[in-house]
Amino acid sequence: MDAKQKELNISTIKEVLRQYLQEKGFRNTPERYTILEEIYNMEHHFNVDDLYLLMMQKKYHVSKATIYNTIEIFLDAGLIRKHQFGEKTLTSSSYEKSYFDKQHDHLVIYKKDSDKEIQEIIEFCDPRIQGIKDSIEEAFGVNIDSHSLYFYGTKKD
Ligand SMILES: [Zn+2]
């Protein structure tokens, strides 16, 4: 993506956030926009600790409580999505930006003989999943808005 497109995308999501905060009557604080921009500049999945460290490195002083609270807002506003990568504690849930994303699914690879320690997360897009969705919609007379699919495994020797 070129720099100009990126800039355009950032202003689009900031506008989505601005409208959301206004509708909900939440405070329109500048750090929410800063956090949002940092998330949209990231290329991969992140958890709260990653985001907190990133903000510290950039010398933005936000508390972890603010980050948790802001993440809840972004989730509700449809700006990020939450993932179940199989981490054991709730606090290490992963997230990713979602506003411009194509639908994709995830293959979670754990380190061998570890207790669900993640080695790698691969994103994939398989058109057959769309086909399944279409036939389920047809068979049950529903519109499917979203789905959730994760594969978990380890690397073969
Ligand atoms: Zn992803």
From TrEMBL:
UniProt KW keywords: Cytoplasm, DNA-binding, Iron, Metal-binding, Repressor, Transcription, Transcription regulation, Zinc
GO MF annotation, one: transcription cis-regulatory region binding
Gene Ontology, cellular component aspect: cytosol
Binding note for cofactor: Binds 1 Mn(2+) or Fe(2+) ion per subunit.
Compartmental location: Cytoplasm
GO biological process: negative regulation of DNA-templated transcription; regulation of secondary metabolite biosynthetic process
Main location: cytoplasm
Residues the entry annotates as binding Fe cation: 105, 147
Obligatory cofactor(s): Mn(2+); Fe(2+)
InterPro entries tied to this protein: FUR, Fur_C, WH-like_DNA-bd_sf, WH_DNA-bd_sf
Pfam family for this entry, one: FUR
Keyword Metal-binding in record: yes
Highest taxon, organism lineage: Bacteria
Subunit structure: Homodimer.
PANTHER family tied to this protein: FERRIC UPTAKE REGULATION PROTEIN, ZINC UPTAKE REGULATION PROTEIN
Entry similarity comment: Belongs to the Fur family.
Name assigned to this protein: Ferric uptake regulation protein
Organism: Kaistella carnis
